[in-house]
Amino acid sequence: MEKFLPILQIVVAAILSILILLQQRGTALGSAFGGEGGFYATRRGIQKKLFWATVVFGFLFVALAILNLILK
């Protein structure tokens, strides 16, 4: 169990990094100065699934980190 948790945490961190990089980028300050698109945009389809997968893997990463601290 001691060797399993750090390896699992590394795998979750790698997947979380990939999910974050796959997120669609916004227009940044362009929308604040009248650029295309509105301020509010709904997530649909794959964007919504990527967002929730990122949230789940984020919580999983934090839980594994806390569990790793408790068991050491």
Automatic annotation (TrEMBL):
Compartment(s): Cell membrane; Membrane
TM ranges: 50-71
Main location (coarse class): membrane
One annotated Gene Ontology cellular component of this protein: plasma membrane
Entry GO MF terms: protein-transporting ATPase activity
Signal peptide: none
Record bears the keyword Cell membrane: yes
UniProt keyword annotations, A-Z: Cell membrane, Membrane, Protein transport, Translocation, Transmembrane, Transmembrane helix, Transport
Membrane topology of the entry: Multi-pass membrane protein
Source domain of life: Bacteria
Pfam family, one: SecG
GO biological process: protein secretion
Function, as annotated: Involved in protein export. Participates in an early event of protein translocation.
Family: Belongs to the SecG family.
Name of the molecule in the record: Protein-export membrane protein SecG
Species per Swiss-Prot/TrEMBL record: Candidatus Nealsonbacteria bacterium CG23_combo_of_CG06-09_8_20_14_all_39_25
Organism placement in taxonomy: Bacteria, Candidatus Nealsoniibacteriota
